[in-house]
Design a protein that fits this description.
Order of helices and strands: EHEHEHEHEHEHHHEH
Number of strands: 7
CATH architecture: 3-Layer(aba) Sandwich
Bound molecules: nicotinamide-adenine-dinucleotide
Strand order of the largest sheet: 3-2-1-4-5-6-7
Family: Belongs to the short-chain dehydrogenases/reductases (SDR) family.
Radius of gyration: 18 Å
CATH topology: Rossmann fold
CATH superfamily: NAD(P)-binding Rossmann-like Domain
Number of helices: 9
Distance between the termini: 59 Å
Strand content: 5-15%
Protein name: SDR family oxidoreductase
Shape: globular
Length: 255
């Protein structure tokens, strides 16, 4: 087993995952980036050092097993697992075809289940920590998010199941639920529904979108010993979106 701590970040080639990779590197972890975009992950590894890129579709059980074998051979431990890989698309319920539903479930939910199951033996070695990346869409319902929001609500519950069973090994499992963050994922959604940006801002007390690093800092905290007694929790990192009711527009126009 390597002496260094090891973090595994799925979907770590860009966006929120990449911001988490950078924080783990700054804390001295070796980092495994598990991503479909191998070329991007490989460039990242060349540029940063301390990064092992592994091409893997987290929804493919065989690919996930092979990925876990590589990590077992190379490092023999996993201290932090961030199940961050995710996809989104927006459709009204009646236009959410079954293929789209299954695809979103398979990456967002099956992926977090499969990767955690495959890496649990390596986390048991060191009482590792899991952070699943859900979404505010898993806590609050909005239009067009039947598949995405439901997949993320399931990830929040999966986190509690993981905390229940894996606590016996000292493994903690927590969840972050980001509000809107300007990544490639969000850019595609805003392109499909341009009114979305203004709608979000109307409901976010901090009146802005989040930054990738602001999500990643909370992920890193939950993986750290400072959060050693925190498990089974979901933290919304959302500028207050989850807490907000009506009245912000009137308040702002009065100010
Ligand atoms: N950006 C937001 O506003 C926002 C808000 C709430 C939650 N989230 C969640 O945060 C996570 C990261 O989002 P982001 O905005 O950084 O996305 P992004 O699209 O910028 O990056 C996602 C990364 O995941 C990888 N990926 C996609 N499918 C994969 C698969 N099947 N297997 C392995 N890798 C795969 C992509 O190649 C990419 O590198 C997602 O789970 C997303 O649902 C994002």
């Amino acid at each position: 087993m390597t002496a260094n701590k090891v973090a595994v970040v799925t979907g770590g080639a860009r966006g929120i995952g990449l911001a988490a990779v950078d924080i783990f590197l700054s804390k001295g972890y070796d980092v495994v980036v598990v991503d479909m975009s191998y070329a991007v992950a490989n460039d990242l590894a060349q540029a940063r050092g301390g990064v092992l890129p592994i091409e893997c579709d987290v929804s493919d059980p065989d690919a996930v097993s092979a990925m876990a074998e590589t990590i077992a051979r190379q490092y023999g431990r996993v201290d932090a697992l961030v199940n961050n890989a995710g996809i989104a698309s927006l459709h009204p319920i009646q236009e959410t075809d079954f293929h789209t539903w299954k695809k979103i479930m398979s990456v967002n939910l099956d992926g977090a289940f499969l990767v955690t199951q495959a890496l649990t033996p390596l986390m048991k070695e060191v009482a590792g920590a899991i952070v699943n990346v859900a979404s505010i869409a898993g806590l609050r319902a909005s239009t067009l998010r039947t598949a995405y929001g439901t997949s993320k609500a399931a990830v929040i519950h999966l986190t509690k199941q993981q905390a229940m069973e894996l606590g016996a090994y000292g493994i903690r499992a927590n969840c972050v639920a980001p509000g809107p963050v300007e990544t490639e994922l969000l850019a595609k959604l805003v392109e499909a529904a341009p009114e979305m940006k203004a709608s979000y801002l109307e409901t976010i007390p901090l009146n802005r979108f989040g930054q990738e690093k602001e999500i990643a800092e909370v992920i890193a905290f939950l993986c750290s010993s400072e959060a050693g007694y925190v498990t089974g929790q979901t933290i919304a990192v959302d500028g207050g979106f989850q807490a907000a009711g009506v009245g912000l527009t009137a308040l702002r126009s009065a100010q």
